[in-house]
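Risk register update: the risk of archive-format incompatibility is retired. Evidence:
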Amino acid sequence: MDQIKIGKFIATCRKEQGMTQAVLAEKLGISDRAISKWETGKSMPDSGIMLELCDLLKINVNELLSGERIMAEAYDKQAEENLLAMRREVEEKNRQMLRTEYWVAFPAVISGLVMVFVASFIEMPVWLRIVLIVFALVMIFTVAFIAVGIEQKAGYYECQNCHHRYVPTYWQTNLAMHMGRTRYMKCPKCGKRSWQKKVLTNL
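Archived output:
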């Protein structure tokens, strides 16, 4: 999706309705700075307020995501294109988050193991050995908790029984047995436990 084009369209529609950025922001319960960011293409409206925004601007969601008014005969095709574009953006965002998980976790775990190795086999005072080992273990566990949080928020888990896709809680994810990003959890829909794989979208 072209955020610059969408931003200009929002600005045009806002002016057509005789609203300033401040007035539109007040109606949506957000800051006028957020409106400014949309209209300059620096960010997109959150999905939670898109319907209300479209109602105020007298447009539909497909027109908002297209950045232009859509003729009736082109509506279905444009709707499909917008859905595909949104799906690609969600997938890419989740893919980036999962890559971040690796970049956060891998170096920290390696560094921690190196510190434990050094503390175990290099001659040094006992107090320094204890400090190094404790610091390494605290770092490894802290980074592991952060990495699980990133994994939990990026994408969905798919039940292997009913194929329902959902986002479990942090502690469900953290405490579940796992092999890589596949975790043994209970599906909230069918209630059965299975090895659930990480997927990037809920479609």
